[in-house]
Amino acid sequence: MSDGEIKSTWAAVQDHTRHFSDFTFVYPVISRRSKGLSIGVNLNPDKVCNFDCIYCEVDRRIPGAVTEVDLCQMKDELTAMVRFAKDGGLAKEPKFNEVPWLTREVKDIAFSGDGEPTMIRNFSECVETVVEVQQLEGLDKAKIVLITDASRLDKTEVKRGLETMDAHNGEIWGKLDAGTDEYYREINRSNVRFERILKNLLETARVRPIIVQSLFLKVHGEAMSAAELEAYCGRLRDLTAAGGQISEVHLYTVARPTPEAFATKLEVPELETMASAIREQTELKVSIFP
Ligand code: SF4
Q: Virtual CA dihedral for 157, 162, 167, 171, nearest 10 degrees?
């Protein structure tokens, strides 16, 4: 990457006629799970994912805007966004001006977005780029979060990225939405075998504590059965019994209407009841984010 390239991207990113909503790879959100401002880094502008969750909000009928992640542009967008937040610019923006006190501190930078972040071929380089911004902008306290479906945590390239994250306040949020293979196929509709997901979660959680994130919902008006919830708790117990460290379980539900109209949200009391059952059966810390 040449200096010329850096300057030209930086100039485009800094252009005041260009609003941050026009950024390609970076976007701000106030996240309850992050307890404040999270800056999302979308490594899948092409919308590629190896899951096809029934609750996914990404509309894949419309193709992604770009197919490649330009690391130079991503770095400049991230730097500009961090500075915009710290300088108080974000606090004045619609959507953010109701909670201005939450917008100045970056709680985390999260690999998330329109697909599975670990599907990118140079994942570890993407992590290094984010770490560079984290260090240059004095964000040592901000976490670097990977929100993942866990399908590729066994890849050497991904493991390399995870090691870099470990050294820089990293945190992995691994998806587990089911207890049985059958329900996994119904909800996540992936060709990746359920056994592989479980193995990857275990191997990853043996190296460092992870957060398990689970989206529970209603399918054709029916919540997950009691037997499925029991099987799910069994999976969590298996993970911890085999040496996997789970610092917390995040339970959440459908937040917005999804392309699949039969996938709908759970009500707060329903999520609370499930969270209590999981606490009882696994002794893990469980938080809900309705
Ligand atoms: S893993 Fe995430 S991006 Fe992929 S289909 Fe599921 S919800 Fe959508």
A: 160
Residues 198 and 79 in one domain: no
CA of 53 to the centre of ligand 1 (A): 6
The whole-number average pLDDT for the span 129-153 is: 98
Q: What is the mean pLDDT of residues 188-212?
A: 98
> Is 146 in the same domain as 219?
no
User: Domain range holding 287?
Assistant: 176-290
Assign 18 a pLDDT band (cuts: 50, 70, 90).
low
| 80 and 147 both lie in a single domain | yes
Q: Are residues 53 and 79 in the same domain?
A: yes
Residue 1 has pLDDT above 90, yes or no: no
86 and 105: one domain?
A: yes
Ligand 1 is surrounded, with C-beta below 6 A, by: 49, 51-53, 56, 58, 115-116, 149
Asked which of 25-39, 87-101, 106-120, 222-236 is least confident by mean pLDDT, the reply is 87-101
Which atom of ligand 1 has the smallest separation from the CA of 50? 4
SS in 3 state form for 192-211?
Answer: CCHHHHHHHHHHHHHHCCEE
CA of 188 to the centre of ligand 1 (A): 8
118 plus 45 within the same structural domain: yes
E runs forming strands in 97-228: 106-112, 143-148, 170-175, 210-215, 218-219, 222-223
Model pTM above 0.90: yes
